[in-house]
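Write out structure tokens for Two component regulator with propeller domain.
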Amino acid sequence: MKNKRNIFYSLLIIMASLIYYPVEAQQKDARQNVVKTKDITTAHGPNSIVRTIKQDRHGNIWLASGEGIIRYDGKSFTNITIKVNSARFFSILEDRKGNFWFASIGSGVYYYNGKSFRNFTTKDGLANDRVTNIYEDKSGHIWFGTEGGASRYDGKSFQNFKMNEARPVTETDSVYTGPEPVHTEADSVHISFYQHPLPKNHWMHNDVNAIIEDKTGKLWFGTRGYATVYDGKTFTTITNNNCKPFTNVRSIIKDKKGNIWLGGADGLWRYDGKIFTNFTQKFVDYIYEDKNGNIWTSSESAKGQNWVLSRYDEKSLLDNKPIVTEIKVNDNMLCGILEANDGSIWFGGLKGVYRYDTHLQNGEEKTITDFKK
């Protein structure tokens, strides 16, 4: 079935198969908690999808949204790209020098030094102008995940990478492309499956959603095709015991202990260097580790098709039944997550940005602030 990338998404995560690395694997049944919350609405903030949330070294909160790059200083929201470009933005990086990089859909990458912008596109060597992810490695190189492969920028020029080592999907595989934020004027839902082999160089293998460097220096890439690991010379597809790959990995993080976490169409997985452990088979869009080691996800609810913000308690991550707390939100899909300096949890959705205050309010209810225009 031909995938149409110009359509809005909102529901259904269907494919959830057990995945194993070619060593040993575990699956955990979670103990579910649900938190009561009270909603608060304020007359601020973006009114469209917020994909990524970051806090800079000065405490400002930055949002990559469908309306542009928006900065929140604790009092007001400012769209800093409105005079530069009206593009939809997916990702934000503050590099080690304090400069910012913004990934856009269709207009390449914007570099911002606090005073002026510089735009990088395919004309400058970028692999593709549709960019969804930005990452800085240990050497200070900036990596861009695009819909045409990965690009590495060394400060002078780009080097592009294709994940062509990924094996073709067999006829028995179904690759679920997941709920994808495609941008049309009309709201609609499109669910795509590939029931036939994909060519070795199929675009899905090079549509990069996530990049992370592990403790050994290898780079992990999550794509809409397969997740791969790059050792500096070759790309290796991560497979289970049946030689089936991790598909449509949307988020990859490295936690404080060096474990690698993957989230996507196959659920939430942790790799400790030897064993892959599964925590849920529900679709996971974003993973985040807070300062206490708790793992947060934006994902489909364990009990239904609605989306929730989930917290996996750090003290129970090694238990057979980890403690999972679900925070329900009135939104059709949830995206990026951030723990702010004050301990509050910010997260994005289709309808804007939210703040979850983790401390009890009014004696019993925790609050979710919905920042709306």
